Amino acid sequence: MALMITDECINCDVCEPECPNSAISPGEEIYEIDPNLCTECVGHYDEPQCVLVCPVDCIPKDPDHEETQEELQEKYNIITSA
Questions:
Q1: The 4Fe-4S ferredoxin-type domain covers which part of the protein (predicted)?
Q2: CA angle, 65 as apex, 53 and 72 as ends, to 5°?
Q3: Which parts of 29-80 are beta strand (E)?
Q4: pLDDT tens digits along 37-56
Q5: Exposed e or buried b for every residue in 27-44, given b needs 16+ CB within 10 A?
Q6: Which domains does the chain have, with CATH numbers?
């Protein structure tokens, strides 16, 4: 399952550089996560780095983009092979 950033985001800029897949970018009002690039850090780390550094805890799992660990690993494999 990809992650998402809620409207509680304070645009502190700490999550974007932590993403190993460059899935986080500035949106019109708050940062956004591209679900096609988000692997929840599978393949890179044991837990999502953006969630670890977020000071307001506004990065939950995105219920519109549910994926298994295997699907996240496959997405990681595709992203890193490009």
A1: 1-29, 31-64
A2: 70
A3: 31-33
A4: 999 999 999 999 999 999 99
A5: eeeebebebebbbbbbbe
A6: 16-81 (3.30.70.20)
